[in-house]
Design brief:
The structure holds 2 protein chains of 2 kinds.
Chain A: H1 4-19, H2 23-36, H3 40-60, H4 66-83, E1 97-102, H5 110-121, E2 125-128, H6 135-145, E3 149-153, H7 157-160, H8 163-173, E4 178-182, H9 188-194, E5 198-200, H10 203-226
Parallel strand pairs in A: 1-2, 1-3, 3-4, 4-5
Chain B: H1 3-12, H2 30-36, H3 47-61, E1 65-67, H4 74-79, E2 82-84, E3 96-99, H5 122-136, E4 141-147, H6 149-156, H7 159-168, H8 170-194, E5 198-202, H9 213-230, E6 234-239, H10 247-252, E7 257-260, H11 266-273, E8 279-283, H12 294-307, E9 311-314, H13 324-337
Parallel strand pairs in B: 1-4, 4-5, 5-6, 6-7, 7-8, 8-9
Antiparallel strand pairs in B: 2-3
Helix pairs in contact in B: 3-5, 5-8, 6-8, 7-8, 8-9, 12-13
The chains are: A alpha/beta, B alpha/beta.
Chain lengths: 227, 341
């Protein structure tokens, strides 16, 4: 049995490590969690993700901006890399896979990477196509991997307009696949018009949306543990 | 009063008959490209094609300026980055940077090539400006644009790294931005020599959606000031996103006018900056001009004018697939409504 006090100390270290963008603290905390024999999922969700949720709040309060978020993300990954190999597969009924990328003509990938991070955390299998991805590549990859979700990102109006073509092609071949679009020029109206299932306007919104999703998983997990 | 006189008088702070309808950012249309029989991918690499295309927005719709270049990669390319113009693309894809100049923190000590004014497409741009000016320059205002130092730095190195370093190692970033400012000045001077009436400095990357107003003031404003001080043509400073918290800093940078997009609350900006400040903006060039109907275009133009913009001007590049009837409606509405203030 893991000592409760010690366990809480480790969780606190992970949480604060993310908030204070301290990669070393996250690495140390993660290693301590492993050495203590703590549940890796718990360390991820109650430590790292709890920290990222706070980061989301700080961002909303305009105390943090994108540079801070990127550093927090680095800290989260530093811990996640150590914890992940020790994760038992979570049985939450939401296991999934996602194809993600920035569309051709666009080389911005910050928002995309933040969303990807939350999928990584949630234990999704992530097929990251990177940036400046030819439109057909999304369709091919979805068919090849049969992923549940495709996320398309664009930072500029000038590259966003390729999105409806991809959505149409994927939906035509696989109507079950969910599609999320994101990036500064996108909107709920465009998502609806183009037949996308979800949308996040910018890196912060994407982060908020992704945090919401993962926070939901965390709640599910808690409820399951109670039973 | 010609379009050029209207725009120049506006910059000078002299009397105009109505609010002008123009832009200092990209505004070529598919309609114009089609009429000329060109391909979008080709117009970035040929001075005549670039100038011809840029002139069509004035010729076809009465838009009151002609602007080159069309893409955002001129300065980065001249500095040594490799660009991709997507030569085989069927549709419209804007050139992007394929290979960066700085790959890690240790390479941030960028040196400006000795002959930057003749590198990359800078000579092509000089030629395009001259052609464009000879074509429509007596009637329409001729503009060009350069990137702001932070936005250019985000092309020269990984934006991800730049953002983090602007927090962790602000001194190093400040130094890089100062070099970027010098490079931008060299390029802008060439455009001035070629005869542009005004230059827009597009500092899109330094929006408060990304950086705090405090970082904007300490890190971005000084190199912008340096650039504005050197420009002799009229200058416009454009920043995307939510700009209400930094409009004062934008004015302090010293441009002749500031340009804001649809997320800016213009009545509030007007109140803050006073009656004489030149504020250009702020319609959504995609959701209004491209995907909106004529009625939305007209109401939006009236709103911009009533909100107090000094010129009706888009929040970003006009996307080329804009329906011609919406372009017509925009200009018609500004003509009708723009003198009533």
């Amino acid at each position: 049995m893991v000592d409760e006090t010690r366990k809480n100390e480790v969780l606190e270290k992970l949480r604060n490590g993310v908030i204070q963008y301290d990669e070393d603290a996250c690495r140390e905390g993660a290693q301590e969690a492993v050495d203590l024999g703590m549940d890796a999922n718990e360390a991820i969700f109650e430590g790292l993700v709890a920290g990222m949720e706070e980061v989301g709040r700080l961002f909303e309060a305009q105390e943090y901006f994108v540079p801070e978020i990127l550093m927090c993300a680095d800290a989260l990954y530093a811990g996640l890399d150590i914890l992940k190999p020790h994760c038992k597969q979570m049985d939450l009924g939401v296991k999934g896979s996602v194809v993600i990328g920035t569309v051709e003509g666009d080389v911005h990938d910050i928002g995309k990477n933040l969303v990807k991070m939350m999928f990584d955390v949630a234990g999704f299998t992530v097929y990251d196509l990177g940036r400046d991805v030819p439109l057909d590549k999304f369709v091919e990859e979805q068919l090849k991997t049969d992923s549940d979700l495709v996320c398309l990102s664009a930072m500029m109006t000038t590259s966003m307009v390729g999105m409806p073509t991809v959505i149409e092609k994927i939906k035509e071949k696989n109507p079950e696949c969910l599609i999320m679009i994101g990036g500064a020029p996108t909107s709920k109206e465009l998502a609806d018009k183009w037949g996308a299932d979800g949308y996040a306007q910018d890196a912060s919104n994407a982060l908020k949306e992704a945090i919401k999703m993962v926070a939901f998983l965390r709640k599910l997990r808690e409820e399951k543990l109670k039973k | 009063m010609t379009s050029r006189e209207r725009v120049i008088n506006l910059f000078k702070g002299e009397l105009i008959d109505r609010v002008p309808c123009f832009s200092g950012m990209g505004n070529v249309t598919e309609e114009g490209i089609k009429k000329l029989g060109y391909r979008f991918a080709d117009i970035h690499l040929d001075a005549k094609m670039m100038a011809d295309t840029a002139a069509t927005t004035y010729k076809l719709f009465g838009f009151e300026s002609g602007v080159v270049p069309v893409d955002l990669c001129v300065e980065a390319e001249a500095l040594g980055c490799v660009i991709n113009v997507y030569p085989h693309a069927e549709g419209i894809l804007y050139p992007t940077i394929k290979e960066k100049l700085v790959h890690n923190e240790d390479e941030m000590d960028v040196k400006i090539p000795a002959d930057l004014a003749n590198k990359g497409r800078v000579p092509l741009l000089r030629e395009a400006i001259k052609l464009l000016k000879a074509d429509i320059g007596s009637d329409a205002a001729i503009g060009s644009y350069v990137l702001g130092p932070f936005t250019l730095a985000g092309q020269v190195m990984e934006l991800n790294d730049l953002l983090k370093l602007s927090f962790k190692k602000a001194d190093k970033v400040a130094k890089l931005l100062d070099v970027m400012a010098d490079a931008i000045i060299i390029v802008a001077k060439e455009y001035e020599k070629a005869g542009v009436d005004f230059i827009t400095v597009r500092e899109m990357g330094a929006t408060t959606d990304v950086l705090s107003p405090r970082v904007f003031k300490s890190l971005i404003q000084p190199p912008l000031q340096k650039i504005m001080k050197e420009l002799t043509a009229y200058s416009v400073l454009h920043i995307c996103g939510k700009t209400n918290d930094i409009v004062t800093f934008m004015v302090e940078a010293g441009p002749t006018a500031i340009s804001v997009e649809q997320k800016n609350d213009v009545p509030e900006t007007r109140k803050k900056l006073g009656a004489d400040a030149l504020i250009f903006g702020n319609y959504d060039p995609y959701n209004v001009l491209v995907s909106g109907d004529e009625e939305l275009v007209r109401t939006t133009m009236r709103k911009c004018i009533d909100d107090g913009v000094s010129a009706v001007w888009p929040g970003c590049d006009i996307w080329p697939t804009v329906p011609p009837r919406n372009m017509m409606a925009m200009i018609d509405e500004v003509k009708k409504h723009g003198g009533k203030r």
